[in-house]
Amino acid sequence: MIDFHTHTPAWETATWLGGTPFGADEFVGFMDSAGIERAVVLSHDGLFDPTPESNDRLSEFVRAYPDRMIGFGTVAVRRKTAVAEAERMVGELGLRGLKLHPWLQGFSMHERSLDPICEVITSVGGVLLSHDGTPPYSTAGQIAALARRHPKLRVVLGHGGLHDLWREALVMTQETENLYLCICGTPPYAARHILQEAPPHKVIFGTDAGLSDKASQDYAVARVKEIDGWGITDAQRHAMLVDNPQRLLEPA
Ligand SMILES: [Zn+2]
């Protein structure tokens, strides 16, 4: 399976999200134990402090296992250097997508400074994965509006609406051609509805592994096991865990 939402440890920030400083070897050990063949790895420090250094460290982390880990970097969208950093990240650093966290990074998806950044990601056939599910700045409707301004950019709702906004996440995914939905931290009853009603090629899965106080990532293992209780078909499972994420990781 491909886990489309994991994080590096926190090297520079101290937050409520924890982040034991595990190494790449340890992380791949966790992936093996949970049956995860490949993982999209997002920054942890960059959620709070989106600096070029956070992209450097992320790139270094995933480069240890290039066939197992795919890095998505981040940028401070209001900085004048943001477009150049987006170019550096997908060029020199070899990162394959952009992660944004409008809530923690403090901006709105409607801000026009996002447009040239999105154009960079589109030009390399990359993916934009956004945190979602927490108003005011991270609703599926706001993220869908950005996706509609950039119809060639593939945009992923990183959390399938979480607890409060999964219905909106589902509707926006149904109605926005280039919007995809990652079930990650979405409650199980919502995951079941999403899988019954969303276009089957648009649903992917993530554990959020890495935001943990234990290198063993126990809660992420529990999220993988949870899938067994969703009552889905083998075809749905294969699409969500293999075919759909694989397609998104191939350049568009
Ligand atoms: Zn996350």
N-to-C terminal Cα separation, in Å?
Answer: 21 Å
The helix-and-strand class reads alpha/beta
Enumerate the spans where pLDDT stays under 50 for 5 or more consecutive residues: none
Major sheet details? 8 strands, parallel
Q: What is the CATH top level name?
A: Alpha Beta
How do the helices and strands follow one another from N- to C-terminus? EHEHHEHEHHEHEHEHEHH
Number of helices: 11
Share in β-strands: 5-15%
Fourth-level CATH superfamily: Metal-dependent hydrolases
Provide a concise account of the structure shown.
This is Putative TIM-barrel fold metal-dependent hydrolase. The chain is α/β, with parallel strands linked by helices and 252 residues long.
Structure description:
One of its GO terms (molecular function) is hydrolase activity. This is Putative TIM-barrel fold metal-dependent hydrolase. Keywords: Hydrolase, Lyase. Residues 2-249 form the Amidohydrolase-related domain. With 252 residues, this protein is an alpha/beta fold. The protein has a single domain, classed as TIM Barrel, CATH 3.20.20.140. 42% of the residues lie in helices and 14% in strands. The chain is built from 11 helices and 8 strands. The protein has an 8-stranded parallel beta sheet with strand order 1-2-3-4-5-6-7-8, sandwiched between helices. Helix 4 runs parallel beside helix 6 (114-123). The longest helix is centred in the C-terminal third of the chain and has 16 residues, at 234-249. The structure holds zinc ion. Zinc ion (ZN) binds next to strand 1.
Core attributes:
252 residues, alpha/beta, TIM Barrel, eight-stranded parallel β-sheet, globular, binds zinc ion, Metal_Hydrolase
